[in-house]
Specification:
This is Vacuolar protein sorting-associated protein 45 homolog isoform X2. InterPro entries: Sec-1-like_dom3a, Sec1-like, Sec1-like_dom2, Sec1-like_sf. It comes from Cucumis melo. One of its GO terms (biological process) is vesicle-mediated transport. The chain has 507 residues and is α/β, with parallel strands linked by helices. Helices cover 47% and strands 10% of the residues.
Length: 507
């Protein structure tokens, strides 16, 4: 389990500030805790400077923490990289930016394994140049440059670090979400477990920014992976419980009643804040769902993601493109989802959708869909995104089609689920996910860290948490360069397309 903490805190000790590519965080126990980013794995010189300057002998202890990552959930971390689109750019286009991107990812991965006190066996997605580069540089750091730093007690089976590319599953970040945590991020946005509500008219002054953390909010912890319909009923129960407590607190008649109320006031105030927060979030999301007709849109999205039928899919997408209530971003996502599914099967119909999108959307052009196919089309992907090749997935989809599903809006499962199943069963193919160097694994690892270059989603985080709740005997940890929603994924695509255009040779 990851310990949740903020990354790269500001330097409090002003006289000494160090920076560099390899970041460590140190705490100095003086009158209170001071946090100083020394910024280098080779730190002896800086420690000597601090010791020589401590003329009053106030430093009692030096404690080392590796925190070059953000633990946002117990099994989910991110690096919060601002220039996330760089992973899409070929190395020849902007070598310095790509090197900086890879260095930052390697630093974050190294910090994680130092925090876990482990050195992993490393594998990567064969079809991704950037995943291969990061895997090789991480291996070089851990096994050569800083091998002594990573020389921890050997485990019977080494943990596994698997580095994969977001472009192997472009489907997941394009879909609307219908479970609580993922839906909040998709429709409103979550940054480091905080939600900005300043733009919401009905949010009170003390609710301009709220925290969504499973460590601090028991209701959120119990409901973060529940679907939207259940959340509404559970919030109603939360409101009813609070009203009963509030009613009892209003009946203060004696000194003893008052003392009891004062003792319980912090918990009462906390419960009041939680009720207000969750009611505000669900109310705002319900408003967005209605305005954008997302239930209608999402049903077609899920059909495109999970079921076949090109003729019916073309008709459904065409009807939604013609619907005046559908927003431009939803039109774009629908065409992208259709293109990813049927790029090889129906080029004529795809061109018709391109023309329709160009005529209906003032903001988004069809070139972005073509750039997505260039980056993440079927010829670029390793995984079996639609279950077309895996017999087990075909059987599962047939069974699901016969029996129906409990919730049509949550049919989709990320490709990551297949990857975890393959690891559990020892069937992750070496030809698709080779080992770095001459390392290999004998037996099943007990711990697997999957890092997605290009970003994770909360749908994938949920899949990891649910998998860890089973009895497979393997603990998975998910990490990525950012946490994506559809807007961030599309923004990265736009930036990648812009750089690719500007660097294209003149004819």
């Amino acid at each position: 389990m990851l310990y949740q903490s903020r990354v790269n805190p500001c330097i409090i000790l002003k006289r000494f500030a160090f920076s560099g590519p390899r970041q460590r965080i140190y705490s100095f126990c003086v009158a209170s805790w001071l946090i100083l980013d020394l910024g280098s794995i080779t730190f002896e010189t800086q420690i000597h400077i601090l010791a020589d300057s401590d003329e009053q002998d106030v430093v009692q202890q030096v404690v080392e923490f590796y925190g070059d990552f953000v633990a946002i959930d117990p099994y989910h971390f991110t690096l919060n990289m601002p220039s996330n689109h760089i992973y899409m750019i070929p190395a020849v286009v902007d070598p310095p930016s790509l090197q900086h991107f890879c260095d930052r990812v390697v630093d974050g991965i190294a910090a994680l394994f130092l925090a876990l006190k482990q050195r992993p066996v490393i594998r990567y997605q064969r079809t991704s140049d950037v995943a291969k580069r990061i895997a090789q540089e991480a291996s070089k750091l851990m096994y050569q440059q800083e091998s002594g730093l990573f020389d921890f007690r050997r485990m019977e089976v080494s943990p596994l670090l698997l580095v994969i590319d977001r472009r192997d599953d472009p489907l997941t970040p394009l879909l609307n979400q219908w479970t609580y945590q993922a839906m909040v991020h998709e429709l409103i946005g979550i940054q480091d477990n905080k939600v900005d509500l300043k733009s919401i008219a009905k949010s009170s002054k003390d609710q301009q920014e709220v925290v969504l953390s499973s460590e601090q909010d028991s209701f959120y912890k119990a409901n973060m992976y529940e679907n939207f319909g259940d959340i509404g009923m559970n919030i109603k129960k939360l409101v009813d419980d609070f009203q009963q407590i509030a009613k009892s607190n209003q009946n203060i008649q004696t000194i003893e009643d008052m003392a009891k109320f004062v003792d319980n006031y912090p918990e009462y105030r906390k419960m009041h804040g939680n009720v207000s927060k969750h009611v505000t979030l669900v109310t705002e999301m319900s408003k967005i769902v209605e305005e954008r007709k997302l239930m209608l849109v999402s049903q077609t999205e899920q059909e495109l993601a999970c079921n076949g039928g090109q003729v019916a899919a073309f008709e459904a997408v065409t009807n939604l493109l013609n619907n005046e209530s559908i927003s431009d971003i939803d039109r774009l996502r629908l065409v992208m989802l259709y293109a990813l599914r049927y790029e090889k099967e129906s080029p004529v119909q795809l061109m018709q959708l391109f023309n329709k999108l160009a005529s209906r959307s003032a903001k988004y052009k069809t070139g972005l869909v073509q750039f997505l196919l260039k980056q993440a089309g079927v010829d670029k992907r390793t995984g079996d995104l639609y279950g077309n090749r895996d017999l087990l997935n075909i059987a599962r989809n047939m069974a699901r089609g016969l029996k129906g599903v409990e919730n049509v809006y949550t049919q989709h499962q990320p490709l990551l689920v297949q990857t975890m199943e393959s690891i559990i069963k020892g069937r992750l193919r070496d030809v698709d996910y080779p080992f770095v160097g001459n390392h290999f694994q004998q037996g099943r690892p007990q711990e697997v860290i999957i890092f997605i270059v290009g970003g994770t989603t909360y749908e994938e985080s949920r899949a990891v948490a649910l998998q860890n709740a089973t009895t497979s005997g393997i603990r998975f940890i998910l990490g990525g360069s950012v946490v994506l929603n559809s807007r961030r994924f599309l923004k990265d695509l736009e930036e990648g397309q812009r750089i690719s255009r500007s660097s294209a040779p003149m004819i």
